[in-house]
Amino acid sequence: MKKCSVLIMVLLLTACGYHLRGTFDLPAGLKKVYLQGGSAPLREQFSKTLQGSSGQLVNSAGEAGITVRVFDADIKQRGVSLSAGGRSNEFELHYRLEYELRDSANKVLLAREPLDIRREYFNDQQDIIAKDNEEGVIRNEMYQQAVRGILNRMRAVLETKPKPKFK
């Protein structure tokens, strides 16, 4: 009886469209992606996201269905508020990059487009080590958000791209 109920639950979960968090249904053109430029953390997040969605980050543009060219990627930190002692209580992280999308024939699918991500966090002067770790986690989440934004844009571009007409 227990095995039967577990089997029914599994079938219901798969039938309702349940997906693991962070996974994408990738169209055929996004199964192999080449990332030109970009930082090591961005590349790592791209690779993890694609692997989790049955895709692959390839080593050359010739192998890829689509190429993402990253320009001017920069992450900046600035103090937002100060304590009575003159130390920063709150910081803002700003991650900005520009990217363009090209197909396998090196034709521009999407001209240079900016992507901006901002996050703020509180800086507790009593627990500096934990706040350094928190900043690392926030930066990692910003890279994840950037990858999701680029992948969503890539899917939209591929869906609106005119299909070739066959005779």
Short note summarizing the structure:
By secondary structure, the protein is an alpha/beta fold. The protein has three helices and five strands.
What does this structure look like?
This protein has 167 residues and is α/β, with parallel strands linked by helices. The chain has a single domain, classed as Double Stranded RNA Binding Domain (2-Layer Sandwich), CATH 3.30.160.150. The chain is 36% helix and 34% strand. The chain contains 3 helices and 5 strands; from the N terminus they run αβαββββα. A 5-stranded mixed β-sheet has the order 2-1-3-4-5. Strand 4 and strand 5 form a beta hairpin. The mean pLDDT is 81.
Distance between the termini: 57 Å
Output the CATH topology.
Double Stranded RNA Binding Domain
Helix content, binned percent: 25-40%
C-alpha Rg (nearest Å): 21 Å
Which percent range describes the beta-strand content?
A: 25-35%
Q: Which regions contain 5 or more consecutive residues with pLDDT less than 50? A: none
Strand order of the largest sheet: 2-1-3-4-5
Based on the coordinates given, report the CATH architecture. Answer: 2-Layer Sandwich
Helix/strand-derived class?
Answer: alpha/beta
| Overall tally of domains | 1
Report the principal-axis shape.
flat
Mind summarizing the main beta sheet? 5 strands, mixed
Give me the number of helical elements.
3
Order of helices and strands: HEHEEEEH
Using the coordinates above, name the CATH class.
Alpha Beta
Q: Write the CATH homologous superfamily.
A: Lipoprotein like domain
What is the overall pLDDT average? 81
Report the strand count.
Answer: 5
